Amino acid sequence: PTELDLGSSKSEEDQTLVMLFAAIALDAAKQGNNDKFKKVNNVVEANYTLGTGLPLREVKEGKDVGYRSKLLGSVHQVEFLITPKYQGIKVNIKFDEVKVYPEGFAAYINLVMDNDLNIINRELIDRRILIQDIGGLSTDIAVIKNRKVDDDKAQGFNLGVAEALESIREEIRKKHGVELDSRRDVVEIITKKNDRNHIMVRGSRTSVHDIVDRILGELAKKQYRHLRNVWQKNSQTEICYFVGGGSIVLKDYLKTLNQNFDGYNIDFFEDERESVWMMANAYYKLISDFNRRNSKEQQQSHQKKKEQRSGAVK
């Protein structure tokens, strides 16, 4: 399964590492990377610099330290047993450097930096903003001020959309006798462009609107309460951006609540693909920026030593 269990922590869950190592091993083994890594007798020796992240709550609890040392401390071997094209290949993964970023900060970086690490949306840079990142298992609200996450004011909650999706799946099974394979199937039913909130029951098109509205409406109220509480403590906030897979599911409900109640300045990523891939893009930008600065510093230090040596020779 690729879905994390309810109540689990990303930093402590094997599933997080399994997916990470599988993705890296696939990258290392693919044809285009033959010249990058040493390969002897179907064993690939792959070195990577990794940018990844954890929910704000886990970073505040210091779990990023153990997570990073777990990744850095050893060689991780992945063997492809039955994967087409890669069967029989082993990949030894070693990390030269690992950076673990708070997820809320990563979302902010994605808003203000393009893929070439140039500043975009310049008007956002010095604004006070909130980023409410709704995931499957947790929600982070990052408070951004002076281009940094304010760790003291940022909040993390054990409240994601996974439990609500499970409840919808269970109620559909009880009421209509239809088994949906996973939470992903539920997401598809409630976000698809045509025939949203409808399923087929014995070949007949059937609405599940009542179930979905009740369960997601309740969850949206809880998420909105969290927004209200954090905003009240940060009254000079100018805008809140909703990001993450959960915000796609709750978007309409949150917009309606906001219109009916406080009327905060909130915004969503209309491009659903962008919202889902936002974190991966952000980590790539952050680690690229780190690499760029690092190599610059190394060049400067190398140049300095060179100058010192030539000065000593004179």
UniProtKB/TrEMBL annotation:
<dbReference type="InterPro" id="IPR054368">
    <property type="entry name" value="Alp7A-like_C"/>
</dbReference>
<feature type="region of interest" description="Disordered">
    <location>
        <begin position="294"/>
        <end position="314"/>
    </location>
</feature>
<dbReference type="InterPro" id="IPR043129">
    <property type="entry name" value="ATPase_NBD"/>
</dbReference>
<protein>
    <submittedName>
        <fullName>ParM/StbA family protein</fullName>
    </submittedName>
</protein>
<dbReference type="Pfam" id="PF22128">
    <property type="entry name" value="Alp7A_like_C"/>
</dbReference>
<feature type="domain" description="Alp7A-like C-terminal">
    <location>
        <begin position="129"/>
        <end position="267"/>
    </location>
</feature>
